[in-house]
């Protein structure tokens, strides 16, 4: 292992889902360093050397949000912008995405004379329309690399692809996309009949007063 690896050198290609109609509200993807650290200290260890494993860093990790997750969410929203936590958002209707990453770590397993090291991540995401305090959809899951990869960057790419694939499946299978589309849809205009009835009721109330 080198002393550090950068997410800028990770080239992930997550599987994408086809959506017939994208959500027209803009999505603001929030980067909060208290929830998503930009650097992770990693340690390779196994039962062969649990105390003497190599230590190194994974840096520029917020690229997972500002690049990989942004691209993935672009499949569902017509416009996606990445903003820092605390940035004032517009008053026009939009959708907010909050992200957290709880851990990034290595899990090493000895097999014979070899040691296979899986890169693991636990993370979550919540999506809500700007006028709602509660999330319309929440996700919590994991991402994992395979047991072997040609370079560490390739292993991190597998991690990213696994994490986003899990999110995509959950968004569709748990009805999250439908919930967001309904919550973000503009209010339907009142029918002429309903408008006439409302006007008549208002006139009657005025006459009674």
Task: Offer a concise description of the structure.
This protein is α/β, with parallel strands linked by helices and 209 residues long. It contains four helices and eight strands; from the N terminus they run ββββαββββααα. The strands form two sheets. Strands 5-2-6-7-8 form a five-stranded mixed β-sheet.
Would you mind describing this structure in some detail?
The protein is of the alpha/beta class and 209 residues long. Helix content is 28%, strand content 31%. The chain contains four helices and eight strands; from the N terminus they run ββββαββββααα. It has helices at residues 63-73, 152-173, 176-184, 192-208; strands at 4-6, 27-31, 39-43, 55-59, 80-84, 95-111, 114-129, 137-144. The strands form two sheets. The protein has a five-stranded mixed β-sheet with strand order 5-2-6-7-8. The chain has a three-stranded mixed β-sheet with strand order 1-4-3, with no helix packed on it. The termini are far apart. The relative contact order is 0.18. The mean pLDDT is 87.
């Amino acid at each position: 292992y080198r002393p550090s690896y950068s997410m800028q050198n990770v080239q992930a290609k997550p599987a994408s889902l086809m959506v017939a109609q994208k959500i027209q509200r803009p999505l603001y993807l929030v980067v909060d360093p208290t929830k998503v650290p930009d650097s992770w200290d990693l340690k390779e260890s196994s039962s062969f050397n649990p105390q003497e494993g190599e230590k190194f860093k994974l840096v520029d990790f917020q690229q997972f949000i500002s690049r990989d997750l942004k691209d993935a969410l672009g499949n569902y929203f017509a416009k996606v912008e990445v903003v820092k936590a605390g940035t004032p958002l517009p008053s026009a209707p939009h959708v907010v995405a909050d992200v957290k990453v709880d851990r990034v770590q290595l899990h090493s397993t000895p097999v014979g004379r070899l040691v296979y090291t899986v890169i693991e991540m636990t993370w979550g995401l919540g999506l809500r329309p700007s006028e709602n305090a509660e999330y319309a959809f929440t996700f919590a899951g994991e991402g994992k690399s395979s047991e072997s990869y040609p370079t560490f960057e390739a292993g991190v790419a597998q991690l990213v692809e696994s994490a986003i694939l899990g999110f995509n499946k959950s968004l569709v299978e748990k009805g999250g996309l439908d919930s967001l589309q309904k919550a973000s849809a503009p209010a339907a205009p009142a029918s002429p009949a309903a408008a006439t009835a409302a006007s008549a009721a208002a006139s009657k109330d005025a006459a009674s007063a």
